[in-house]
């Protein structure tokens, strides 16, 4: 749906030909040129990245394999047959990459720590060389006037821990606690902004239920224990950061996608409610003390088997901020052929809507809807958009990449962020996904999400038009 259609639809929904004052205000907002100052002087602007997707240096300086090294080297797991042994080689190029980021005027660099670099055996002796690498990244950010924002876990569990059951093994609560303790003691003096997880839904659902991400496990008997132990680690991790880091600003990041019923009927609405419970409510609600969202999907009650006395207390945490990560939306429809869910999504291809290279619908209103939803929870104090972005087929022509679609994507999503902010949502920052093209998990290198184009043969970086758009936008 384009902007004009959206406004028309909203006008229709609001009940009439005569436009309400809210719709008029919305039309003005969406047609207006974006100004950085509209977001306020304290609003944070940055980019997000993840260790496995950009670092490379698979076995350098003592790093051991993570589940993603194993998975990407297993035949048939990555669509393109590729791996991230080298990827963007950020491990050796962090200085020049961070210099590009500074020149694009960003304030925040979000990156994740690779557990298998910091404690190669998963538990036990830390690896000083791994710790040194992240000190260098942090120091470079600070020297360049950018804030380092650290994600403790962006999906790359040490393989040695997966061999012991990984997230399914309840001992992971202690392993993770030890890892967080090591990281916060090592970097806590320099880093104040911490995120416990990147998208727990993604690594547990894709990795332990559907088997399409590492470690490639399937079915509910793997998913439910992984899910509960991950929830427990929200509380455990948050409390350790609080204890070890003075003046820490602590959050975690949650993927979210509006799930809309295809038709206004009970069956489609039920499928949409189930998907909403799984995709959007599953991890945020327990940490806020609301329990698992079994009212949305009764099946989730099966997690009870893994809950022990005292867990409900231990898994809660009072986060300073919540990170939301939004890319698309889901249109849900009843289907008698898909067990448990009894439904399916209607693929964007069948809906005549704009799609990205990931075949995700471009739906800017979705970020507004999710910001409103998350802000409505008691206990959510601040929100940062910790990821938002798009992959389009980029072409390198005369040393330029004219990625107009990506520029429009950012403009349209930002307008919806601003709309939520103007309506009182306490959203305080926005991080693009992502700094530069990189290894997009099971999709390999084909989808390019970066503001900077990477020529993987030569490791040359070429700032795309979207990167220049951000530079100018942030320079206002
Ligand atoms: C998010 C992930 C991130 C990246 C983007 C496209 O779900 O957190 O690593 O893959 O999707």
Written overview of the protein:
With 476 residues, this protein is of the alpha/beta class. 39% of the residues lie in helices and 15% in strands. The chain has 2 domains: 31 residues, no CATH class; 432 residues, TIM Barrel (Alpha-Beta Barrel). An 8-stranded parallel β-barrel has the order 1-2-3-4-5-7-10-13, surrounded by 5 helices. The chain has a 3-stranded mixed beta sheet with strand order 6-8-9. A two-stranded antiparallel sheet has the order 11-12. The radius of gyration is 22 Å and the shape is globular. Beta-D-fucopyranose (FCB) binds next to loops.
Structural class call reads alpha/beta
- Please indicate the percent range of residues in DSSP E strands (runs of 2 or more): 15-25%
Low-confidence runs? 6-18
Gyration radius from CA atoms, angstroms? 22 Å
Number of domain modules: 2
Shape: globular
CATH architecture of the largest domain: Alpha-Beta Barrel
Helix content: 25-40%
The CATH C-level name of the largest domain is: Alpha Beta
Query: Termini separation (Å)?
Result: 30 Å
Give the names of the bound compounds. beta-D-fucopyranose
């Amino acid at each position: 749906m384009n902007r004009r259609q959206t406004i028309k639809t909203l006008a229709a929904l609001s009940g009439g030909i005569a436009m309400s004052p809210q719709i008029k205000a919305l039309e003005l907002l969406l047609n207006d040129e974006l100004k950085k100052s509209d977001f306020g002087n304290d609003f944070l602007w940055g980019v997000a990245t993840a260790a496995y997707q950009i670092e490379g240096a698979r076995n350098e300086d003592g790093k051991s394999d993570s589940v993603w090294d194993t998975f990407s080297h297993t035949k048939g797991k990555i669509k393109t047959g590729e791996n991230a042994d080298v990827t963007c080689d950020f491990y050796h190029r962090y200085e020049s990459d961070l210099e590009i980021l500074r020149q694009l005027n960003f304030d925040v660099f979000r990156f994740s720590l690779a557990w298998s670099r910091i404690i190669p055996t998963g538990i036990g002796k830390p690896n000083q060389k791994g710790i040194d690498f992240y000190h260098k990244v942090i120091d470079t950010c600070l020297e360049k006037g950018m804030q380092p924002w650290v994600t403790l876990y962006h999906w790359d569990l040490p393989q040695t821990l997966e061999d012991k059951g990984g997230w399914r093994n309840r001992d992971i609560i202690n392993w993770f606690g030890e890892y967080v303790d090591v990281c916060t003691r090592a970097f806590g003096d320099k880093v104040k902004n911490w995120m416990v997880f990147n998208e727990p839904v993604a690594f547990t659902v894709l990795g332990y239920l559907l088997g399409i991400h590492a470690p490639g496990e399937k079915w509910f008997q793997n998913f439910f224990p992984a899910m509960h132990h991950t929830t427990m680690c929200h509380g455990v991790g948050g409390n350790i950061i609080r204890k070890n880091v003075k003046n820490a600003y602590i959050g975690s990041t949650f993927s979210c996608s509006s799930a809309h019923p295809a038709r206004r009927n009970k069956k489609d609405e039920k499928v949409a409610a189930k998907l909403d419970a799984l995709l959007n409510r599953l991890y945020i609600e327990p940490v806020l003390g609301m329990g698992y969202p079994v009212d949305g999907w009764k099946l989730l009650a099966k997690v009870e088997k893994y809950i022990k006395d005292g867990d409900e207390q231990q898994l809660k945490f009072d986060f300073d901020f919540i990170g939301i990560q939004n890319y698309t939306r889901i249109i849900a429809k009843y289907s008698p052929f898909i067990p448990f869910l009894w439904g399916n999504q209607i693929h964007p291809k069948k809906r005549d809507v704009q799609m990205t290279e990931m075949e995700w619908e471009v739906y800017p209103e979705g970020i507004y809807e999710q910001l409103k939803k998350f802000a409505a929870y008691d206990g959510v104090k601040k929100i940062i958009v910790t990821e938002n972005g798009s992959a389009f087929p980029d072409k390198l022509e005369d040393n330029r990449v004219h990625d107009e679609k990506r520029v429009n994507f950012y403009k349209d999503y930002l307008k919806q962020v601003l709309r939520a902010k103007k309506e009182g949502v306490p959203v305080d920052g926005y991080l693009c996904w992502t700094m530069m093209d990189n290894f997009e998990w099971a999709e390999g290198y084909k989808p390019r999400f970066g503001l900077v184009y990477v020529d993987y043969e030569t490791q040359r970086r070429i700032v795309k038009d979207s990167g220049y758009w951000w530079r100018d936008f942030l320079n206002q």
